[in-house]
Amino acid sequence: MQQFTTLDLSPIIPLWLLAAAAVFAGLALAPAFFRRARGVWWRAAAFAALILALANPRLVEETREVRPDIALLVMDASDSTALVPGRAAAMDAARRSLETRLGRLDNLEIRTVEVPEGGNQGTRLFTALERALAEIPRARLAGVLAVTDGQIHDVPATPSLDAPFHLLLPGRPGETDRRLRVIEAPGFGIVGRTVELRVAVDDLGVANPSGVARLTIRRDGAAPRQEAVPVGREHRIEVPIERGGPTVLELVAETGAGEVSDANNRAVITINGVRDRLRVLLVSGEPHAGERTWRRLLKADPGVDLVHFTILRPPEKDDLTPLNELALIAFPVRELFQVKLREFDLIVFDRFANRGILPPAYMRNIAEYVRSGGALLVSVGPEFSGPASLAATPLNTILPARPVAPPNAIQETPFRPRVSEAGRRHPVTDGLQPGADPDWGRWYRHLRSEPRAGTTVMEGPEGAPLLQLDRVGQGRVALLLSDHIWLWARGHEGGGPQQELLRRMAHWLMREPELEEEDLTARIEGGRMQVMRRSLSPDAPPELTVTAPDGSTLRMPLSPGGGGRATAEVPAVTAGMWQVADGRRQAYAAAVPTNPQELADLRASPERLAPIAPAAIRWLGDGAAVPELRRVAAGRDMAGNGPASWIGLRRNADHTVTGISALPLLPPWLALPLLLGLALLAWRREAR
Which of 32, 91, 381, 468 could pair covalently with 40 via S-S, beta carbons 3.0-4.6 A apart? Predict the structure, then answer.
């Protein structure tokens, strides 16, 4: 509590009437002063006493509760403050020093405002400041002390702050920074083609940037290659897309001379490889009820270009009819199986019997095509056990099974297909069968065979192989040992998942990444890396070795799940390329910066705050101490330069009146005798 005494007037009559009385008194006294009459001064004193009595002067004593002023200490805690070595420590030291010094100032309250990381919105310092100001009476605001690197992304165009704003920068004038800027990077690329990246290396804070910078490019952890990039100019990089799925690129620009940090010298880009329209060759043999099942499946996929031939006229039925009189198209054997064979992504033989149509040389071409990375799907019927069987051709070397000898080769008894134990772990059949006994429609024909290689993912009667999948060299082969899958398409006895099964099988053959049965994948979302390992082996999954972008490693176990999957999760907050290995396979994931605006410029600079025009800008680098703090009256300078540098906080003297008392200086009992006495003295003086 404080006591304040003031002199106050409380007129008995309106002010205009009091002013009129004063004017009348002046006019009445003017002639007397002009003639220098006796007693004129006593007469003036009497008039003055009358006007003073009407003004009613009082001595007012107030009891005030003084409210302390408020100083806001704004601390920038965004990513850019932690990326420069020593910057975070300098800001913490400045905070402690400011809080200590502010605490010593009288009649001052300190409120600290933390500016958190703003995600992709950058540093929202003024947004946080406005929230704090909304809780403070502006009459009590002494000033704002902002400890920040100046990289603020919400600076208002017109400042609305009516208090001193002081900027404390943890650095030194003239800082430089080199950054790698990705101008354009495609998210997708066609397998077998190249994509183009557009990047630039900028030297910020350099008066005339020139020269070249070495750019290191690493793809999926392979051996790096280097390119020379002109500083300050756009540079184009050609990247071949060699496989489907994500391709992770890490670009690193060499560290610039004297730059504050190389955290923004790298960029990580993920390009998803997708296949162009897939070309499929479907060769149907003897017409049967299920022939349209394959055609409809492949034609329904808009990404598939289908070439379909049906062998309606085998050579043994040649009746010497001239070709120009035939309505059928001659089977272009040489064009398909020699000239253009490798243009196809998948070859499908549907109940095809080789009755001399394809010579052994062409069959060897197909086998070599598969070993070199092609895909072959064979759906067989009774012809598979006869003399025209594909197993009796050079394709026998790549087929995962061979038919048993007649008469036991064909089994025509009802059975329900089921997923095998290995098939429950294979992505082609995982999840197709919900329980142990599938409620699927029955098939009525099965080709008995002797498995030679591959994985049996579906079983027929008595556990006999029904669908076998195999990898041959760099290619893949699928063998379906029944021609009755069309019964599911017709809804026989409720049908079955024929469409999903055939779709998965075709896409597995064409090496779709999500259908790899032996695979290790990693992806990063929300600062955490999720790893999934898939394997047909029932053994416990091995430990993973995780390598961070800075080269540090850690080992972590996998948690087994269903369908041959095992998963793990690990924090991944460091930007760059992360590598995961299980001893056999490796996977890569890109952790991109969560706040690209924060990395755009890592210099400490007051340039962005030019519209605010801070009252003082002080640098805290090179061991500079926090300047002296002073309380300054409103209207005075709020900062001082020179050897004794200081920054000021406004003294507002805001208060609340809790009590008041008034003492009249000329009460009526005193005013009347005084007025009469002065009038009597004036009369006597004039009467002499």
Answer: 32
